[in-house]
Amino acid sequence: MRASAFITCITLLVVTTPAAIVVVVASPAYMLVRPLEDENDYARVLELSLLFYEAQRSGKLTSEAGRVAWRGDSALGDRGANGEDLTGGYYDAGDFVKFGFTMASTTTLLAWGAVSWPDAYAAVGQLDVIRETVKWATDYFVKCHVSEFELYGQVGDFAIDHTFWGRPEELNTSRPAFKIDPEHPGSDLAGETAAALAAASLVFRTSEPSYSEKLLRHARELYNFANKYRGLYHEAIRGAAQYYESTDYGDELAWAAAWLYKASNESRYLEEAEHHYQHFHLRERPNEFFYNKKVAGVQVLLAQLTGTQEYQNAAHSFCNFSVRRQKRTRKGLLYIDKFGTLCHAANVAFVCLQAADYPDIGDPKEYREFARQQIHYILGGTGRSYVVGWGRNPPKQPHHAASSCPDRPAPCGWPEFDRNRPNPQVLYGALVSGPDEADRFHDKREDYVYTEVTLDYNAGFTGALAGLLQLQVKAAAVTSTPRAA
């Protein structure tokens, strides 16, 4: 969407907080995106983060998907080995490969945030938007699950895809599809997809009960597939190893079983989650939480589901380490890895906000303040925003092919990659990889270590925004409630 675009039928929602009055521009189908300045305005950035996911959509775009004016239908020929329809889903990053593993991990986190903090989404008119964001992925996963023990986990070949720079609507490369099956298993991929579908079934339980049941049915089958046929998915889908290698699958098995228990309330899934937790030594304190390391999420989720001291202690240990002892930059950013620096910080903020909702796990005030600090850094608290199209001095050259293209019908190709100028299309809401451990950031398209954008970079970030916004909404409700005479 261009900043100059004017959209009609706008409604205003005013949310009163103890600190300020937040005016949110919203409507059922459209919103007006304007330059913003307040780095504490979680509501507006939450809207933009969901808008980023719309810019990443593949397949036949619905009429409601017209908020990103420079995007159109793409990859309508995506098919499986036997002609299965694999259209839809999301492009992973600035390229046009659809990686099932990270798409599923992203979906699980988005669903977890929506299930935990629906009041935040509802307060700013984004409840239907988050549901549609999740559904765009889950519809695709259902298509990819072509039989009980077959799941397509990737469409497009990274090496082939990277010979092309331009618009997804003009893709001219071959797009092979890759799957897992009993002879070529992928417990991590099937387990994470099961977790995503189980979590998403909770998102739709009230609004679309039949769809919720459908997702839960696929989640059960995929978990059974993951558990019965063990293996690492990148050994079956070789092209994924270089970019999204998975180092274990025990965390995905426990993660999937825990989500199935939360979605179904069937005790056998909790028993299996606890078995995986012990068998795969998931009690040890992790240092991170992201698509390849779910242990911290497993610990927090099991603590929420059971109230058992062992899981509470594990979640407490992780968040205490992250808040008090984990390495930080001079300006206060949690520093775990240069690739996805901000994603790592936002993910830890997200999972510790989840922990903070259960006081027995740790100190809610300390964890929430930590999350505020990390999100404050991302939104510009130390001088610049790292969210494209928002705040003070935001990134102008995200490593993203489609947004680097001028308006059609002007051509787009490798010359656009090389041009040292802002991307013509603003990729609103995208969280870039971020600065290095010295707080330095290079806003250059070709310097992807700093300017890469991906589905999973925005996942925990979106949830953390919702968690912080929910606190504001609750505080506003308390202050606005009349006292009894």
UniProtKB/TrEMBL annotation:
The protein's matches in SUPFAM superfamilies, at most eight in alphabetical order, are given as: Six-hairpin glycosidases
Entry's EC annotation: 3.2.1.4
Glycoside hydrolase family domain mapped to chain residues: 42-465
- List the GO molecular function terms: cellulase activity
Alphabetically list the UniProt keywords: Carbohydrate metabolism, Cellulose degradation, Glycosidase, Hydrolase, Polysaccharide degradation
Show the catalytic activity: Endohydrolysis of (1->4)-beta-D-glucosidic linkages in cellulose, lichenin and cereal beta-D-glucans
Q: Where is the active site?
A: D443, E452
Tell whether Cell membrane is among the UniProt keywords: no
Provide a GO biological process annotation.
cellulose catabolic process
Pfam families given for it? Glyco_hydro_9
Highest taxon above the source species: Eukaryota
Broadest EC class assigned to this enzyme: hydrolase
User: Which family does the similarity line name?
Assistant: Belongs to the glycosyl hydrolase 9 (cellulase E) family.
Protein's name in the database: Endoglucanase
> What is the species listed in this Swiss-Prot or TrEMBL entry?
Nasonia vitripennis
